[in-house]
Specification:
The complex is a heterodimer of chains A (325) and B (370). By secondary structure, chain A is α/β, with parallel strands linked by helices. Chain A has two domains: 183 residues, Thiamin diphosphate (ThDP)-binding fold, Pyr/PP domains (Rossmann fold), CATH 3.40.50.970; 128 residues, Rossmann fold, CATH 3.40.50. In chain A, 37% of the residues lie in helices and 20% in strands. Chain A contains 13 helices and 14 strands. In chain A, strands 9-11-10-13-14 form a five-stranded mixed beta sheet, sandwiched between helices. A four-stranded mixed beta sheet of chain A has the order 5-7-6-12. Chain A has a three-stranded parallel beta sheet with strand order 3-2-4. In chain A, helix 7 links the parallel strand 6 and strand 7. In chain A, helix 1 runs parallel beside helix 7, helix 9 packs across helix 13 and helix 10 crosses helix 11. The radius of gyration of chain A is 19 Å and the shape is globular. Chain B is an alpha/beta fold and 370 residues long. Chain B folds into two domains: 326 residues, Rossmann fold (3-Layer(aba) Sandwich), CATH 3.40.50; 31 residues, no CATH class. In chain B, the strands form two sheets. Chain B has a five-stranded parallel beta sheet, sandwiched between helices. A two-stranded antiparallel ribbon of chain B has the order 4-5. The chains are: A alpha/beta (325), B alpha/beta (370). Chains A and B meet through helix 3, helix 4 and helix 5 of A and helix 5, helix 6 and helix 13 of B.
Chain lengths: 325, 370
């Protein structure tokens, strides 16, 4: 075990997988000489050369679109979207091409690739850098979506993603790059997709979250414990595939479920979670299912973003309401 | 023994900087005579094979159009009028190593690469297997989202070269698709990476009903290429030889590591955009009549007759063979087991997630697996 922050875990995983499999190549804006704007690829161009760590023109569409051809040529491209918010400029390639190439070609052209994308708020970025767009991609069959909440999972899920025969959108929480630090297993470490992580045991309320929102959920659980409310925290780890069994079990164990995410409320992935829980665990429920999310307003500029994003207090309020139901 | 021609003159790429030279490069005049001093790179056998493919394409168009009207085929787009552009360029490729990244109006190029004609009919009958290129056929699937294939071609060319191949990738798109951001992004990247790709822009005059003057204010699409750092060539797209020589030159450049080339093949869409389109609403009948005079098949035929390479009787026999070939493909496609619910679920993922698996099981419960 070694204590690492999330960006160190990502960088060392890319390094290890590039050493292991020479088909893996990285492409993105500023990822080479500059090592990435968050240093997630720092030193990799020096080690693997300009052919494997490729600085790309400023054009998200062709970063993803070229990755389709690179994958068809036999390589395993790892395109980076510098921010998921700019993924909209590549959405047609991701949703329309990457996600469905295996299907459209009836299996002839699989698309092994990992699209790395920093996302999420609370680091006072300029506009459009902070959006949590995961639900848009979750509605794109053919893609898988990994959203690690710990450094250990960043390694395990990224390794898994790089060995997956299908495309994986790998979302990295901006605010967790350096704040999230934990023990990362050394050597071979993979985390299978579709297996949620019980981040905290609890018997009254199950708080469901992913990525950096797991930290918020844990803080809320801690506050709730002081009031005598026992909250479990379930970290979904991957949205596609979704661990339906874990959701059912968490809901059955607590009878109350609160979902937390950074994206707006309407059509956020929380809607999928609560719909799944009511389908799977309806008769176990003791309170209405709650969602604590950003508001149905555009992501605001930096000065008020902490009031826009769900925080532990808002989660705690939802927990209390669930207990009173 | 075929007559091997000396190297043809290089297409006038540099001269494109001069607006006065913005005349399409032509080697085969509408009356079937060659430009002075020009001797084709295509051998007589190759030329006959190219003509055969042009005629096959026209035969497919006619047969498929009629099938569509009978309700036996879905909406599709004919190649009619663009056969020289598609076939001339495809004949510059070596199907054993080079790739075609098509849009949807380049069937003869796909056939030459080894795509089975039966699958074309299956695809436009709505059977998903039609879009599956058999192993070893170097073609990406039909692309319906215009211009989305152009970045794919660049990535493919770059990836192949990086893995030591000397393959070239030819991608097809039209005057309409040239307006998409993907076209710009892809050509820009290709220039930066010196990707071995040939951008074969078929300017057929129309994007459904939108005339080319509403796509660009430039005098030629080929003029864009120098802006991306590689040459552009404007050729007469109804001239098999001009398209072929320009494409050969571009493919050789690609193999030699000299990077991409943009070829504007100026042609004309003689048919509708697709079978759901009614071009009488927007095409001037006089213009269409004039364009029919420039039919690329007529031009090659005149040359073949003059050279006594194919008599009228021989062509008649060839046409009847081609019709048999097309009918056999249609019959095979119509006899193919119908697509069913399982095709909705296959090949979405290599290993379907539990939800997709469960949906498949529920949807296909009780159906026998073929």
């Amino acid at each position: 075990m070694a204590v690492m922050n999330m960006v160190e875990a990502i960088r060392s995983t890319l390094d290890a997988e590039m050493a292991r499999d020479e088909r893996v190549i990285l492409l993105g804006q500023d990822i080479g000489h500059n090592g990435g704007v968050f240093r997630a690829t720092d030193g990799l161009q020096e080690r693997y050369g300009e052919d494997r760590v490729v600085d790309m023109p400023l054009a998200e569409g062709v970063i993803i679109g070229a990755a389709v051809g690179l994958a068809a040529s036999g390589l395993i491209p790892v395109p980076e979207l510098q921010f998921l918010g700019f993924g909209s400029q590549a959405f047609h390639q991701l949703e329309g091409q990457v996600a469905r190439m295996r299907f459209r070609s009836q299996g002839r052209f699989g698309m092994p690739m990992v699209i790395r994308a920093p996302f999420g708020g609370n680091v006072r970025t300029p506009e459009l850098h902070s959006d949590a767009h995961e639900a848009k991609y979750a509605n794109s069959p053919g893609l898988k979506i990994a959203m690690p909440a710990t450094a250990a999972d960043a390694k395990g899920l990224l390794t898994q993603a790089l060995r997956d025969p299908d495309p994986v959108l790998f979302c990295e929480p901006l605010r967790g790059y350096r704040l999230i630090r934990d023990d990362v297993p050394e050597g071979e470490h993979t985390v299978p997709f579709g297996r949620a992580r019980g981040a905290r045991e609890g018997s009254d309320v199950a708080i469901v979250a992913w990525s950096a929102a797991v930290v918020v959920a844990e803080q809320a659980a801690e506050l709730a414990a002081r009031e005598g409310i026992s909250c479990g925290v379930l970290d979904l780890r991957t949205l596609v595939p979704l661990d339906v069994d874990a959701l059912r079990e968490a809901a059955a164990a607590c009878g109350r479920v609160v979902v937390v995410h950074e994206a707006p409320y309407t059509s956020g992935f929380g809607a999928e979670v609560v719909a799944t829980v009511q389908q799977e665990a309806f008769w176990s429920l003791e309170a209405p299912l709650a969602r604590v999310t950003a508001y149905d307003t555009p992501y605001p500029i930096a000065a008020v973003e902490h009031q826009y994003l769900p925080d532990a207090e808002r989660v705690l309020a939802a927990v209390r309401t669930a207990m009173e139901a | 023994m075929s007559r091997r021609a000396p190297a043809p003159p290089a297409p006038p790429a540099q001269a494109l900087a001069e607006p006065a030279s913005l005349e399409p490069w032509t080697l085969l005049a509408p009356d079937g005579t060659l430009a002075e001093g020009y001797r084709p790179s295509l051998s007589d056998e190759e030329l006959l094979a190219a003509f055969r493919l042009m005629l096959l394409s026209r035969t497919v168009d006619q047969r498929a159009f009629s099938l569509q009207r009978q309700g036996r085929l879905g909406t599709f787009s004919t190649v009619e009028g663009q056969e020289a552009s598609v076939v001339g360029s495809a004949f510059a490729l070596d199907p054993a190593r080079d790739w075609v990244v098509p849009q949807y109006r380049e069937l003869p190029a796909m056939l030459r690469q080894g795509y089975p004609l039966t699958r074309f009919f299956l695809y436009f009958r709505g059977h998903p297997i039609g879009n599956q290129m058999p192993e070893g056929v170097r073609v990406l699937p039909f692309q319906i989202s215009l211009a989305a294939q152009i970045p794919h071609a660049v990535g493919l060319a770059w990836g192949l070269r990086q893995q030591g191949s000397d393959a070239a990738v030819m991608t097809y798109f039209g005057d309409g698709a040239s307006s998409e951001g993907d076209a710009h992004e892809a050509m820009n990247l290709a220039g930066v990476r010196r990707a071995p790709v040939v951008f074969l822009l078929q300017n057929n005059g129309w994007a459904i009903s939108t005339p080319v003057a509403k796509q660009t204010a430039a005098q030629s699409f080929a003029l864009r290429a120098p802006g991306y750092g590689f040459p552009g060539v404007l050729v007469d797209g109804n001239d098999l030889f001009a398209v072929h020589e320009a494409a050969r030159w571009a493919v050789e450049r690609a193999r030699a590591g000299e990077g991409p080339t943009l070829i504007e093949a100026r042609t004309y869409r003689l048919g509708p955009h697709n079978t759901a389109d009614d071009p009488t609403r927007y095409v001037d009948p006089d213009e269409l009549r004039a364009r029919r005079e420039l039919d690329p098949i007529v031009r090659v035929r005149a040359y073949l007759r003059a050279r006594r390479l194919l008599s009228e009787a021989e062509e008649e026999q060839l046409r009847s063979q081609l019709m048999d070939e097309v009918n056999a493909a249609v019959a095979e496609a119509e006899a193919h087991p119908a697509a069913d619910r399982r095709h909705i679920f296959e090949h979405v993922y290599a290993d379907p997630p539990p939800r997709v698996r469960a949906q498949r099981e529920r949807a296909t419960a009780g159906e026998e697996v073929r």
